[in-house]
Predict the structure.
Amino acid sequence: MLNVDFVLKSAEPLLEAGTRVAYNQFEMQQGACFRKTPKAPEVNKDTKLALKNKASDAQIVVSNKHCTVAFNRSTGLLSTYNVDGKTLLGEGGTLKPNFWRAVTDNDMGAGVQKHNRIWREPKLKLVAINSVLDKKNNKADVHVDYDMPEVGAQLTLTYNVMADGSVRVTQQMTPKTGDKRPFLLRYGMVMQLPYDMQVSEFYGRGPIENYADRKLSQNVGIYKQTADEQFYPYIRPQETGTKSDIRWWKQTDDNGFGFKIVSPELFSASALHYSIDDLDEGLDKAQRHSPQVPKSKYTELCIDLGQTGVGGVNSWSSEAIALPPYRLPYKQYTFTFMLVPQK
């Protein structure tokens, strides 16, 4: 990146010398090297994976001496993620698909909370769950298919579990109908982490929250924030905290234990001590204030391929919606990211 700042050489009325009056950032070299998938460790007796997938078991379990990764057989979702005796999931937490955000004032002015509501919590009907152990490459693959009847789509989740505890996740949604559907507010997943796994370090746009149509003011850089620092207490609770154009994201506790997220493409993310459900106003404004929102028992980490922009030509009509280039239309999406444990 080439960062260019224009600053005053000498003081002017109301402005001190050294004040930045304009700036811009230019990408001189694409940073794909920062997003390469880490190599799997060599196979030895300590890293050799085992797969337990009896039909009578409640979980499909992939494990070795260093890690245990399990999936709930009835939901297909990640239910256990332990590395070296420590958990990367909060108690009862999971990693689940997400297509919604806590609606903004602009969303509500345009009626998005009603017109786009099919994406709030679309039903995920489990169709099939399969697993296989690849002994040659020392990895296990878990493949889960869902039907999404309310939105007329099929969703597939594929997990590739590596011997070091890394998990590559691929989320693919494919429409099954030619009928028109409302645009998505988000496409990604939410991971419910232990509450104290609240430290985020990321290489992307920051430090202030930014969105597809509100991001160029924030330079790409390396930033570090807590979950509470990422929350902005708007007068009325709504979406907050998202950062765009992420190259990599680390989520850890105060001692540095956690994981790093990498993806072959730019993504967005946020980590808050609030759930989307609690921040969301529902169908009508409840006229709550931010201090009234209960905190989650988790650090709620959103990992997104994209999110519809926040719009705002006005705040009370269809023009409050993000302009078409910044929406997520109803179509096929594929998002791949990798969770890499950090010690």
